[in-house]
TrEMBL record:
GO terms for cellular component: cytoplasm. It comes from Fructobacillus ficulneus. It is an enzyme of class 2 (transferase). Belongs to the EPSP synthase family. 3-phosphoshikimate binds at K19, S20, R24, S162, Q164, D310, K337. HAMAP family: EPSP_synth. Phosphoenolpyruvate binds at K19, G91, R119, Q164, R341, R385. This is 3-phosphoshikimate 1-carboxyvinyltransferase. Monomer.
Length: 425
């Protein structure tokens, strides 16, 4: 697609529902008794993959605009699939559903697209095997068949701070014999824990560093309202902070503290972001308003990465507009996402003339150097977050640029361009 120099972004938008919470609402709805209704469900390709997988496991799911109704079958009511379970592009679907299927009395074969088939699955195969499931896989990648087993509870310390791995172990532990205790090296997003607390409060207890799962408890269907996705809001928070003259309000954004790392970094940079209209249901939310401001450089290290893991490409863009050298380290996990996001951000930002250096575990960016467009053919590498980051970057380029496979935005934010057009008016 072709773009030209942009005007300030001004106005108010309501962004789509949170991707992580939308996936989990289907999973917990499916394994509960009774009906679960989900409002403001994210109808993006990733969440539709999760929805189709549960239909293939025999669950009745009805859709009406952004409302979804799930008729739960309980933990023992899922049916053996007669087709391959297609996870599309979604790491979250694959890893969380692997945990659930690890305890089911049948075999399920999971497949995915080219990008997902390159992503590591050993991180769920190892703990789930330790609990009693068995896996056939292509060198610990998709396609992968999980043979559900009779699971035993265990004590497990996560080797990486990953909400997907933690959630896979939680979903398996609900079906195990005896309790499971999970220790986290540093806190990752806790949507699974909060949802479990809502659907089945007796199943979970937690302290600052440990989660204990008690199997065999009842699950009751719920009415879930999904807040806006802070990882989608982040594109507008960054756009508002870097495009001169901008002021953007984003309504009803999820501000779970395990997800708000981007707000902390913006604050340290001197960006102006205000919060109003706080709500607190299963997940806290607020309206966020950002205004253009001068930005100071920042440093982000390993301990902050889990709270902003999907926002690292956007942090690189913020750094490229800051008045100094910024450094991101401890981010090697970025190499295992839809693309190698450290390598791809470096490659694509260099085309914009941004001073960026790739580290084994991060990035160094000098925002003081003016940008010079060196190559107008940008490439999303089929990665939704790269596509949207490059689109926001292109707002500051006064020549047309192309973004190859921009359609990747459909993975998490199908209405991204509609919201951009609204803010440009
Ligand atoms: O649990 C989740 O919903 C997610 C966890 C994160 O992945 P990791 O668990 O691999 O860090 C994140 O990058 C992904 O977009 C969504
Ligand atoms: C990494 C992401 O998602 P997933 O792991 O579910 O593919 C993402 O949305 O940036």
């Amino acid at each position: 697609m072709v773009d030209s120099h942009s005007t300030p972004l001004r106005g108010t938008i309501t962004i789509p529902g949170d991707k992580s919470i939308s996936h989990r609402s289907i999973i917990f709805g499916a394994i509960s008794s009774g009906t679960t209704t989900v409002s403001h469900f994210l109808k993006s390709a990733d969440c539709l993959s999760t929805m189709q997988v549960f239909r293939d496991l025999g669950v009745n799911i009805q859709e009406d605009d952004d409302q979804v109704q799930i008729k739960g079958l309980g933990l023992t009511g899922l049916q053996e699939p007669t087709v391959d379970l297609d996870m599309g592009n979604s790491g979250t679907s694959t890893r969380l559903i692997s945990g659930l299927l690890a305890g089911q009395p049948f075999a399920s074969r999971m497949v995915g697209d080219a990008s997902l088939s390159k992503r590591p699955m050993g991180r769920v195969i190892d703990p789930l095997t330790e609990m009693g499931a068995t896996f056939d896989s292509d060198d610990r990648h998709l396609p992968m068949t999980v043979h559900g087993g009779h699971l035993q509870g265990m004590r497990y310390r996560l080797p990486v701070a990953s909400a997907q791995v933690k959630s896979a172990v939680i979903l398996a532990a609900l079906q195990a014999e005896g309790p499971t205790v999970i220790e986290e090296p540093s806190p990752s997003r806790d949507h699974t824990e909060r949802m479990l607390q809502t659907f089945s409060p007796q199943s979970i207890s937690r302290t600052a560093h440990e989660i204990t799962i008690t199997p065999g408890q009842p699950f009751a269907g719920q009415a879930i309202i999904v807040p806006g996705d802070i990882s989608s809001a982040a594109f507008w928070l960054v756009a508002g902070a870097i495009v001169p003259g901008s002021e953007i309000t984003i309504k009803n954004v999820g501000i779970n503290p395990t997800r708000t790392g981007i707000l902390n970094v913006l604050d340290r940079m001197g960006a102006q972001v205000t919060q109003t209209n706080h709500q607190d249901q299963v997940e806290p939310s607020a309206d966020l308003t950002v205004t253009f401001s001068d930005l100071q450089p920042f440093e982000v290290g390993a301990e902050e990465i889990p709270g902003l893991v999907d926002e690292v490409p956007l942090l690189a863009l913020l750094a490229a507009r800051a008045n100094g050298i910024s450094k991101i380290t401890g981010a090697e996990e970025l190499r295992f996402k839809e693309s190698d996001r450290l390598q791809v951000v470096t490659q694509e930002f260099k085309k914009l003339g941004i001073q960026i250096e790739e580290l084994p575990d991060g990035l160094v960016i000098d925002g003081r150097q003016p940008w010079h467009l060196e190559d107008a053919n940008l490439d999303s590498h089929d990665d939704h977050r790269i596509a949207m980051t490059l689109k926001i970057a292109s707002l500051l380029v006064d020549k047309p640029v192309n973004i190859k496979n921009f359609e990747a935005v459909n993975i998490s934010y199908p209405t991204f361009m509609t919201d951009l057009e609204h803010l440009r008016k």
